[in-house]
Amino acid sequence: MKIVDKKKEIKRYFRQAKSIFIMAHRDLDLDALGSSLGMYFLLTRLHKNCYLIIDDKRHELGVAKVLQELEGCVQILTSDQVEEHLYLRQKRNLLLILDTNKTDLVQSASVLDLFSEDQIMIFDHHDIGDTSIEASLRIIDNEVSSTCEMITNLLESYKVTLDPYYATLVLAGMVLDTNNFTLKTNANTYYSAYYLALMGASSKKVQYLLKQDLKEYMERQTMITNVDILNEKIAISKGSPYTIYRKEDLAKTADSLLFFNNIELSFVIGKINDKDVYISGRSLGKYHVSNILEKLGGGGDQMGGACRIANSSISKAEQKLLQILKKEE
Ligand SMILES: [Mn+2]
């Protein structure tokens, strides 16, 4: 469903609301944060009282930079502060869920209980699943590159322009989710980037926000070198059994594997703590990642997903994955 097709309904919801709370997924990335801030400044321009709900204690590099640069410019609440900030007339509160649609992935699931279904709106580009949040307006477009692209379309329909700094943040989310306009990129994606550039979005600043940590990069490169190729099109990389990885690094490595010749599907297996092994999967579209990883208790959508295998070694997890892949082929 395209966001522009729902323009009227969105506008009606916004018109009725006094206080609007914006919540994205846990472990904010630049798409979640960029789209949240794009939405925030659109709504403040419409004279709404807005809040971002952030419970994350630690942030990835780019997100940390943005939050530091914006200190004092944005009303940020933790989930336990939401109730006291609700507008007195309950009906005029609105909760926007961005860049996820799942109960188990939002910053705080308990916040959902403070709002009724008709006070919740979802803007997302991931598939619906078992744990999707009930909301009367779910704008979910899994064809679009990023939530930031959706927000750009919304900005355009409102004819609202953002300050260059904020336009840059929205562009950063798009660059991140498309891996520099290589994944899920179509004419509308370029058009949205163009539209943000017209507002003064700076690609140089985007590059600064997306700067990486060299050590983490090298760890990912090491993982890539430990790769097996199945049927010439499925890449499976494994981390060192002595290293604890961040989930994002496993996901980024799986992203990178898709850049190589013939690879249609990629998996990266690594430890995320002493006991648990995590598998991150990515697909160019031919294979459905979540259909595969659901069999191991995970989830996701066609293009990407993950699962956690408790009390396992990397090789045990790999065996389980290989069994499923053999059936799949
Ligand atoms: Mn996203």
Describe what you observe in this structure.
- By secondary structure, the protein is an alpha/beta fold.
- It folds into two domains: about 210 residues, inorganic pyrophosphatase (n-terminal core), CATH 3.90.1640; about 120 residues, Diaminopimelate Epimerase, Chain A, domain 1, CATH 3.10.310.30.
- The chain is about 35% helix and about 20% strand.
- The protein is built from eleven helices and twelve strands.
- The strands form two sheets. It has a six-stranded parallel β-sheet, covered by helices on one side. The protein has a six-stranded mixed β-sheet with strand order 7-8-9-10-12-11, with helices on both faces.
- Helix 4 runs antiparallel to helix 5.
- The longest helix is centred in the N-terminal third of the chain and has 16 residues.
- It starts with 6 loop residues before the first helix and ends with a helix.
- Manganese (II) ion binds next to loops.
Helical fraction equals 25-40%
Specify the biggest β-sheet: 6 strands, parallel
Fill in the CATH topology of the largest domain. Answer: inorganic pyrophosphatase (n-terminal core)
Give, in spatial order, the strands making up the sheet with the most strands.
Answer: 3-2-1-4-5-6
The CATH superfamily label of the largest domain reads: inorganic pyrophosphatase (n-terminal core)
Low-pLDDT sequence parts: none
Number of domains: 2
What's the tally of helices?
11
Beta-strand share of residues: 15-25%
Structural class: alpha/beta
Which ligands does the model contain, each kind named once? manganese (II) ion
What is the oligomer described by this structure?
single chain
Task: Specify Rg, calculated over alpha carbons.
Answer: 20 Å
What is the architecture of the largest domain at the second tier of CATH?
Answer: Alpha-Beta Complex
Number of strands: 12
Mean pLDDT: 95
Question: What is the 3D shape?
Answer: globular
